[in-house]
Structure formats: structure tokens, C-alpha cells
Amino acid sequence: MDFWNTSVAMDDEFEKLVIRMNPPRVTVDNASSRKATLIKVDSANKRGSLLEVVQALTDLDLIIRRAYISSDGEWFMDVFHVTDHQGNKLFEDDVAERIQQSLGPRARSFRSLRRSVGVQAAAEHTNIELTGRDRPGLLSEIFAVLTDLKCNVVAAEVWTHNSRMASVAYITDEATGLAIDDPDRLANIKQLLLYVLKGDRDKRSANTAVSVGSTHKERRLHQMMYADRDYDVNDSQCGSASDRSKPQVTVENCADKGYTVVNLRCPDRPKLLFDTVCTLTDMQYVVYHGTIISEGAEAYQEYYIRHVDGCPISSEAERERVIHCLEAAIERRISEGIRLELCSDDRVGLLSDVTRIFRENGLSVTRAEVTTRGTQAVNVFYVTDASGYPVKTETIEAVRKEIGSTILHVKEDDYSKSPTQESGRFSFGNIFRSRSEKFLYNLGLIKSFS
């Protein structure tokens, strides 16, 4: 056993040495293509190299139009055709330098997967991770608890899929603006949030964690939903009320080459490549070759993969699991409902107040992005009605009037397409509001639910 451990350690140190001697080399080519900037990345190959590069490009807010991947052997070579969000080529002088810097020190963060439920605090904020059954009003209850416990949410992201919810939030102490590191206080925060997540209907175990993980926030959300088995279609609830096309995923073995070939076709959107590569990597698969084309409304991806043990997919059950997991990875970030954008002076309790107004008007949040830029809160919410249907125009106007029409805006494309629903259709808004308020009352977080 000692010999084995020593051998593994030596292999790991040798890999680190090779990487230090051959750091990633990034070149930017604006001459070869009329439509896009070509970014070429060459480096010594190591597990996770592809995800690191894709994440670096995604974090720089670049749109990947095409990509050609090759990492079969000791060397990793990728070519990405990228533009900005307006479809323009990149002409900044420091693009290659920024990508190179993001690939250097970040490499360490991908080696560890933080699943700890222990209590740890960062210097600036404390990380809160939540998973549980989704329901109308849940986000309002979570923010109400944090506000009552004198916590300020400086950033957060919330995803929902297949009746499950995952959230990563960064909080500070309301009084000091610093991370919360008191073990007793953190234990109390975890316990009260767990009560909210479980409610009285969660058939699976909800989970709360307080940590200081170095893993990328969006990658962590994928990991949390994967661990929560949101891809298990047999265990999902009634599903979405909208009529959206399902992604087409096929998985077949290429016997003569010893690969499994994954083909994927779906409507294109930003960060699609990150979502699929992240999922394959965290499922312990290695991409040896790949082709990505997403220059129109539809995206096409093809991967030649093997498990980390070097074997292709070996059973029908494993094949089906890969298909379901990739479908889930694509669908998690698809935003259902109307996009509401809130920009105002930040203050403690702002999120609690805004999501309470959503709940009181029968709105359900399907996805949320919360950020703080200096003294400004910049938040995005995607909302449907409590049954998952589009929201009535008059309901949106009522919410905007209550929150403030100058600070809460509707994305025009979504707003113009939002149908006014039949006024006689039964609404669950008051029922969910009553249950939510009663639940918070029982926790001692509000004085009355009448």
C-alpha cells in the first residue's frame, strides 16, 4: 500500500512538473476568419484542461461560435471561434494575456470538489449552499430568514429544474459587512434554512451547507443539482407548463476506435458549451476529440469520450444516464417566464422585500441572479405564475408599481410576447401566500400571517 501511495504521489508531482515546464500557450488570430476571432490554446494535457479553457472564455463573456478539440495523447490543442455578444470580433490587445492569466492559478481549484457540510468562512463573505424541493414562495422564505437573522445577501444565483431548486448565496453580517464565522450562529442559520427547505412536502432530503469552496459558482450549481438527481425524469413532478423543444442527445460506441460518441443538438444559447463540458467532466468522462458549431439558432456538439479509466460506455443503463444528465445540464439554465431586471441602491432586506411582493402577487421565481456592484443592487429574476404559466400583463404592472417602475424593468422581448391570460382561470397565489406566511410565522420570523 505504501508503494502504491508513493507511486501515485510521484505521478502527480511529475504531472505538475510537466505543466510548469509547459504552461498553456494562448494565441489570438484575427486574420484567418472574417466573422470571428480564433483563440488557440496549446498545453501539456491534464484532466480537466478543456473545462478550464471553456470556463475561462465563458467568464470573459465571450460567445463561442465554433470549437475544435483534440487532446488524445500528452498534448492538448483547441481552437475556438469567438465573438462578443453583438457578434463582433475581438480587438483588445490583452485578450490572450487575460485568458493566459485565468488558466494559470485557477488550475488548482478544479482538482477538489467541495461537498463539505462543515462551517467555514471566507475573509469577505460566507457561502451558503441550498438544495431542496422547489415551490412557489420558497425564495421569499429563504431571504426572509436571512434578513431576520441579520444577514446581508451580497450575491446569489438560483436554478430550478424538475421540481428541484439549487442556490449558492454569498452573505455577510449586517452590522460589520464581514463574513460570519461564529459557529453557533452559522449552525442556527443552517438549521432554520433547512426547516424552510424541507417544509412539509419534501420527499427527498433537503440540504444546507456553509462553506468557502473554491469551485466555480455555476459549476457548483451543476454539481449540486446532479447530486440531487434532478436528471431523474421518473422522479420529476408534472414538469414545465411551457412547450419547449427537448434537446436531442445520442450516445453510441465507436467500437473500432474505443470511444463513445456523444452527439447533441438543441437551440443555441450562451454558456451551452460550458454546461455540457462541465457535466461530462464531473461525471468522470474525458473528452478526447470534439466539434462544436453554434452559428445559428441551433447548436451542434459532438464529443468522443471515454471514462477516466480509459473505457467507453459499457452498458445501456450508463448510456441512458449520460443522455438524461446532459439533457438536464442543458435545461437547468433555460429561463422560463418573464425576465425582470431590478437596479437600485442596495440595502439590507431588499431581496426579502422584493421576493415577498412577488409571492404576494402569485409569482414564482424560476431563476435568479443577484449581484452587488459598489452601492448598487443589480438583480435579475425570471418569473411565472404559481402554476408555471405566463404572467398576466396587469400582474406585472401591479408588481412594478409596488416595487417601483423606475427600478424594476421588464425585458421588452419577453413582455411583448406575454399573453394576457383568462381572468377566470383559477389562481393558486393566495393559497401559496397563506401557507408561506403561516410557515414563517411558525418559525417566529414574522408576527402575523393573517
Describe it for me?
- The chain has an eight-stranded antiparallel beta sheet, with helices on one face. An eight-stranded antiparallel beta sheet has the order 8-5-7-6-14-15-13-16, with helices on both faces.
- The protein has 450 residues and is α+β, with helices and mostly antiparallel strands.
- Residues 3-8, 105-122, 235-243 and 414-435 have low confidence and may be disordered.
- The chain has helices at 2-21, 49-59, 95-103, 138-148, 183-198, 217-227, 272-282, 316-332, 350-360, 393-403, 412-417, 429-442; strands at 25-29, 37-44, 63-70, 75-83, 126-133, 151-161, 164-173, 207-211, 248-254, 259-267, 285-293, 298-307, 338-345, 363-373, 376-385, 408-410.
- The N and C termini lie far apart (65 Å).
- Strand 3 (63-70) and strand 4 form a beta hairpin.
Summary tags:
450 residues, Alpha-Beta Plaits, eight-stranded antiparallel sheet, 29% strand
Structural class: alpha+beta
Tally of distinct domains: 3
CATH superfamily of the largest domain: ACT domain
The amount of beta strand, in percent, is: 25-35%
Count helical runs: 12
The main β sheet shows up as: 8 strands, antiparallel
Total number of strands: 16
Write down the CATH class of the largest domain: Alpha Beta
Topology:
Layout: H1 2-21, E1 25-29, E2 37-44, H2 49-59, E3 63-70, E4 75-83, H3 95-103, E5 126-133, H4 138-148, E6 151-161, E7 164-173, H5 183-198, E8 207-211, H6 217-227, E9 248-254, E10 259-267, H7 272-282, E11 285-293, E12 298-307, H8 316-332, E13 338-345, H9 350-360, E14 363-373, E15 376-385, H10 393-403, E16 408-410, H11 412-417, H12 429-442
Antiparallel strand pairs: 1-2, 2-4, 3-4, 3-11, 5-7, 5-8, 6-7, 6-14, 9-10, 10-12, 11-12, 13-15, 13-16, 14-15
